[in-house]
Write a structure and sequence with these properties.
By secondary structure, the chain is of the alpha+beta class. It has a single domain, classed as Aminopeptidase (3-Layer(aba) Sandwich). Helix content is 23%, strand content 28%. The chain has two helices and five strands. Strands 1-2-3-4-5 form a five-stranded mixed sheet, with helices on one face.
């Protein structure tokens, strides 16, 4: 049986047979920011990423945010566009990391 667990820090974990097969973070790098997210290669395509993303965005909504910023989505823009109708903000790269990269 799989489940999503959340503790006091906003990091979600998806377990299957007592193994972590996916994770998603929010509000960890900056306020209103989502990410990073990851799903084990052998569990991709099972909608675990979608469940984690939606759960994390719901968590941000419950914190009072009307919008969320997805940090560093370059490799997964299509996933975010398809899953939550995300849009790219022109000129937003490198964003909060401009002074450290």
């Amino acid at each position: 049986m799989a489940s999503i667990l959340q503790n006091q820090s906003p990091i979600l974990r998806f377990y299957s047979s007592k193994n972590i097969v996916g994770f998603a973070c929010y509000e960890t790098t900056c306020k209103a920011f989502f990410g990073p997210i990851g799903v084990s290669d052998n569990c991709r395509g099972l909608k675990i990423g979608k469940a984690l993303l939606i759960s994390a965005l719901q968590g941000l909504k419950e914190m009072g945010y009307a919008y969320a910023i997805i940090g560093g989505p370059e490799d997964a823009v299509g996933f975010y566009e398809k899953t939550v109708n995300a849009i790219i903000i022109p000129g937003s790269v490198p964003g909060i990391y401009k002074d450290i990269i």
